[in-house]
Amino acid sequence: MVSASVTPESELLLLQQLRAGDEAAFTALIERHQTALVRVAQLYVHSYAAAEEVVQETWIAVLRGLDRFEGRSTLKTWLFAIAVNRAKTRGQRDERTIPFSALESASDDAPAVDPDRFYPPGHEDEGWWSIHPTDWNSVPEERFLSGEVQALVRETIATLPPNQRAVITLRDLEGWESDEVCTLLNLTAGNQRVLLHRARARVQQALEAYLNDGDEAS
Amino acid sequence: MNCRELVELVTAYFDDALSPEERAAFEYHLTECDGCVIYVEQMRRTVLTVERLTAGQMGRATRERLLSAFREWRGDQR
What we know:
The structure holds two protein chains of two kinds. Chain A is an all-alpha fold. Chain A has ten helices and no strands. Chain A has helices at residues 8-19, 23-42, 48-65, 75-93, 100-103, 141-145, 147-158, 162-173, 178-185, 189-217. In chain A, helix 8 (162-173) crosses helix 10 (189-217). Chain A is elongated. Chain B is mainly alpha-helical. Chain B has helices at residues 3-6, 10-14, 20-32, 34-51, 60-77.
């Protein structure tokens, strides 16, 4: 995750440099945002190639629109909004759209933890852990950094419902603030948080299953 | 607040988005419940693990293509 804090001053400077045709400024900008843009585009189109094309078009649109950019939003917000619009259009044109409503509402009401893990209604300890979570502090740090865990987490994220995948990608992978995510995806703060919670819970469940399997095997 | 309720509030807790009352109840519960302390720590670890996923690098071909588009745009400007 890269979270570069861009000040209004540095963004103004970047804009000036871009308008002046400064290649280093453009390179810095694409380095900063290219992978995130492709990830976001992939939420709306169905192939990586299509996402890359959408993002290429986005950069060209940004360059052509530089003169008209008034700075009412940040450069980043503007950039990603263009990408989202183009990706939506492309998704529709390819006739394999994810319904936008699916992205703009909290869906999937599954609780973060399987209810069977808690004592049921009627029990004197109703709602308290009956099957306790295991302490991960005994798991070596390297295990969490391993290629296997990385692959597992990527896979889990890739199979999330699109709205959850969008939020966890932008918040946790790309380090965006809540309000930036809400603006781009047209979500309320509450909605956004619920989606993030569900997404993180799924990853936690996958990690727990993986680590428990390891324990049983050894 | 019981455990089943607490686990649904962890993300809000990390975002500092709980009301003062909820937060007090959340933190009080943690003083009484090892299970939830462990669960909150699991979620912290989970977020860290996601955050540390290495981003794919932009391919050289992609970079060249974009720079080429930039130069073309710049050429049109002059």
